Inverse folding.
């Protein structure tokens, strides 16, 4: 793993939260993006060179809506950038981590993403992401 | 705010989790530190230039023990580096954020720290930290 690519925060109302986080960071989000396959609307903020992603579910079946129902709004995942997602998934499987999707899927922000099950990582939902060409 | 300084993860058993996260990141923690005033043992990992802090409560009254009791293990806070913690606290108070400790206190890793109440930040516990001289 190379670095923290972003931190994902689950929110109920993206519009309201965009205002809140703009006040917090002192500048507004720089882009929004819908990821239809995941049922989420997202927005991105920069803090220095770091990214914070807000996620709002677009329907009740969205993983974000379910997360909020269970745990409330808050930090949802940490995404780590990797160079070669397939070899990293192989390495982590051998280490005993539970991979939620072995076939990388298309996430927001032009990334291929794989998630690790929180029950194998101390309750932390971890996303691996590789920039798509 | 300049950058994400670190992400804090609440764990029940620091020794076990140090092994788990060493497998995850592909290298072991580089330091451990007790913060007696907060009732926590901490360890630090590097992922590229980023830091991950694991926190274990040392007694039942520790904020970490209470967090785990309520929410289970998982991501506990995001810490953002600031140059001038007092002026940043003033700015955030004016924006309507609830500051948990207006007087910065000594945190791990030679930092002065202030926390914002999660109820004012979409459920996210945010730490501001300034390097001590």
């Amino acid at each position: 793993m190379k670095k923290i690519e972003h931190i994902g925060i689950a929110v109920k109302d993206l519009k309201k939260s965009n205002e809140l986080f703009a006040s917090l960071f002192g500048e507004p989000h720089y882009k929004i993006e819908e990821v239809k396959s995941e049922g989420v609307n997202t927005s991105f903020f920069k803090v220095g060179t770091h990214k914070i992603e807000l996620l709002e579910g677009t329907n009740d079946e969205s993983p974000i809506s379910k997360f909020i129902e269970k745990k409330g709004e808050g930090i949802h995942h940490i995404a780590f950038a990797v160079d070669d997602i397939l070899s990293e998934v192989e390495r982590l499987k051998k280490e005993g981590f539970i991979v939620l999707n072995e076939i990388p899927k298309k996430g927001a922000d032009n990334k291929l993403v794989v998630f690790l099950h929180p029950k194998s990582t101390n309750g932390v939902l971890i996303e691996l992401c590789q920039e798509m060409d």
About this structure: The first strand of chain B starts at residue 3 and ends at 10.
